[in-house]
Amino acid sequence: MRLFGLIFHLLLAVVTSGWSQEARRVEVSMDCREGIGLIPSVWRGGATTDGVLPVGLELKTVRLGPNMVRTVWATKLAGGDYSWSDLDSRLDTLASAGIDVILAVPVPGGEALVDLWPELVYDLASRTHKKVGRFEIFQGEEVTGNARYLEFYESAVWAIYRANARARIGGPGTMWPGETLSALISQCTELDLPLNFVSWGVRLNQISDLTDSMADARELLRENRLSSRPG
């Protein structure tokens, strides 16, 4: 049986005013790295944000939430140019600090972007791939049904690989428990699509919520044979 070395990036959700005082939500990114005898390492220095970056925290990883990319695309979809300034500024800041970036790329909920999606993703990856460690193809609440998400994931893979054939791609970023993670792993196995990491969110009502979600993801990875590059 193939064994997967797993590196967990635990990303606590933050808001612009600081750490949330509500029930703690954790974004988890698990690398699907093949190997034998690799010991998982847990990185607690992480945060996810759509706004101002957290101050005074020693971070190793930051996940830039989907609203960052939505802002970039909004003006383009309105007939203008891309709004790169905020995203460029944050990526420059993070790169200068040596922080690894996970960039959430939101799958659109409506039909209007179906034809434009590959171009939007390609332009985004072309602009950012030197400063982004991972592209997370993110399924938000506005996306209904796994079939739509999986179609957009496959399209995004090829768009990102056109920009950078060494890019690391994963998803879906949905809340645990749910069916999308299992569906994504199964499709990537069946179609020999790359899936460098899997991601999900979990609200910590008790610590077992986190460990149970990790165990579920680990088991799904063990049951499937994943490719790291398209055939």
Structure overview:
There is one protein chain. A hairpin with a 2-residue loop joins strand 2 and strand 3. By secondary structure, the chain is an alpha/beta fold. It has helices at residues 66-77, 85-96, 117-128, 146-163, 180-191, 207-223; strands at 4-5, 7-15, 18-19, 25-31, 33-34, 41-43, 46-49, 61-64, 100-106, 134-138, 169-175, 197-203. An eight-stranded mixed β-barrel has the order 2-4-12-11-10-9-8-7, surrounded by five helices. The protein has a two-stranded antiparallel sheet with strand order 1-5. The chain is globular. Helix 3 (117-128) packs across helix 4 (146-163). Helices cover 36% and strands 26% of the residues. The protein contains six helices and twelve strands. It has one domain (4-223): Alpha-Beta Barrel (TIM Barrel).
In short:
Helix content is 36%, strand content 26%. The protein is built from six helices and twelve strands. Mean pLDDT is 80; it is low at 1-6, 14-21 and 34-44.
Write the SSE topology.
Elements (H helix, E strand, L loop, with lengths): L3 E2 L1 E9 L2 E2 L5 E7 L1 E2 L6 E3 L2 E4 L11 E4 L1 H12 L7 H12 L3 E7 L10 H12 L5 E5 L7 H18 L5 E7 L4 H12 L5 E7 L3 H17 L8
Parallel strand pairs: 2-6, 2-7, 7-8, 8-9, 9-10, 10-11, 11-12
Antiparallel strand pairs: 1-5, 2-3, 2-4, 4-12
Helix pairs in contact: 3-4
Question: What is the string of SSEs from the N terminus onward?
Answer: EEEEEEEEHHEHEHEHEH
CATH architectural grouping: Alpha-Beta Barrel
Query: Could you give the order of strands across the largest sheet?
Result: 2-4-12-11-10-9-8-7
CATH superfamily: Glycosidases
